[in-house]
Design a protein that fits this description.
3 domains; Rossmann fold; 13 helices; alpha/beta; single chain
């Protein structure tokens, strides 16, 4: 990812929902000004959610999501409807696309119920208004064919979007102008070629916006760098997988945390993650732990989620557990048989998606925690890495 691109997790996610052949894809193309989705008169042309990160004026950086028809039929249709339901969990603003000249169908009423149930800001737009020029309607009217009402739809979406100023800062609220912040960034087999990983990029940007100084080092350079700075940094932020070395090399009086813990706080689930990690201590032999990642990547031989974390947990507790994993958008709705979820920091996911996963787990009585919290717990430094209560 380019350094000047807004990460997907920081974009407003706008979902277009409706029945087959309501013109969702045509309207998406009209709103974006691009041929984002395949358009056809054949019902059910959109068979999987289509996502596109882009700039949408007057709103700014967004992810547009075109979904399959909510009235799809048959065994494949049921799977497509399930995919559409999953999209609801990441949607910040929902657009119900229906057709001018008719009342809402039962499946459309069901979509509205799901929007309200999840407290998703939403609006209804009557597409194909060019076919019913004289029709009066209480809803927003638009035509993907002629472009009528498209500008008004964009403005309405912008009004519904969550205000950016309410967002918690990643690290800036923990430091002062002029502070030093040292970032520990291992460069190993799992590190991407030619760039820093997203949490490191975002932390650097937030530190600079706070008028502080970011110093980036590898784990083996931390001790010498701290000695050479001339004064103690306000904060050391480390990749969680080198927590043990970073903790050993960071003087006790210097605040220490990890990117993963900061992202749990940033995404709004750190308190739940701290509660969830306590469940590890009471899990019986053979318990089922789900490792959940928000992104998909090629797993290395010593992968942090599927290899290192299980190893640290077994070493700390002396018990054998059953581990399984999921990645990307494939977080299970049914957690039957799962005793604990350990989630990544969630840097690639928007806050609504992570909170939806937390709600899914809590509704089924399954503790939910986070990579960084688990690793700090396993190293015996959790309270220190919560900055003695400053983080949660």
């Amino acid at each position: 990812m380019s350094m000047n691109q807004t990460p997907a997790g920081e974009r407003v996610h706008i979902g277009f929902f409706g029945l087959r052949n309501a013109g969702k894809s045509s309207l998406v193309n009209a709103v974006t000004g691009q041929s984002l989705s395949v358009v056809s008169a054949v019902r059910g042309t959109t068979t999987d959610p289509v996502r596109k990160a882009m700039e949408l004026l007057p709103l700014g950086p967004v992810v547009i999501i075109d979904t399959p028809g909510f009235d799809d039929e048959g065994s494949l249709g049921e799977q497509r409807v399930k995919k559409t339901r999953q999209v609801l969990e990441e949607t910040d603003v929902a657009i119900l696309v229906t057709e001018a000249g008719r009342s809402l169908a039962p499946a459309e009423e069901e979509l509205l119920r799901l929007f309200r149930e999840r407290e998703i800001p939403h609006l209804i737009v009557k597409n194909k208004c060019d076919l019913f020029p004289g029709a009066e309607d209480v809803y927003l009217r638009a035509s993907a064919l002629t472009g009528a009402g498209v500008s008004e739809l964009k403005e309405a979406i912008a009004r519904l979007a969550p205000p950016e100023q309410q967002k918690l800062r990643l690290v800036a609220d923990l430091i002062q102008p002029g502070d030093f912040v040292v970032l520990v960034a291992p460069i190993d087999k799992s590190a991407p070629k030619g760039r820093l990983i997203l949490p490191q990029q975002q932390a650097i940007r937030d530190i600079l916006e706070a008028d502080a100084t970011a110093v980036v080092v590898k784990e083996f350079e931390l001790r010498d760098t701290l000695a050479a700075l001339g004064r103690a940094p306000a904060l050391v932020i480390t990749d969680s997988q080198v927590f043990a070395k970073a903790a050993a090399d960071t003087p006790p009086g210097t605040p220490l945390t990890s990117f993963s813990i900061l992202f749990a706080r940033y995404k709004g689930y750190l308190e739940a993650a701290v509660r969830g990690v306590r469940a590890l201590e009471t899990l019986p032999e053979g318990a089922h732990i789900l490792i959940a990642e928000g992104c998909t990547h090629h797993r290395q031989c010593d992968d942090i989620g599927t290899v290192k974390i299980p190893r640290w947990i077994r070493s700390e507790l002396g018990k054998s557990f059953r581990f399984s994993s999921c990645s990307g958008w494939e977080f299970p709705e049914d957690l039957t048989g799962v005793d604990l979820v350990i989630h990544c920091g969630g840097c690639m996911l928007n806050e609504r998606t992570v909170r939806a996963r937390l709600r899914t787990a809590e509704a089924q009585g399954v503790p939910f925690t986070n990579y960084g919290v688990v690793i700090a717990w396993a190293q015996g430094i959790l309270e220190r890495c919560l900055l003695e209560g400053r983080l949660g």
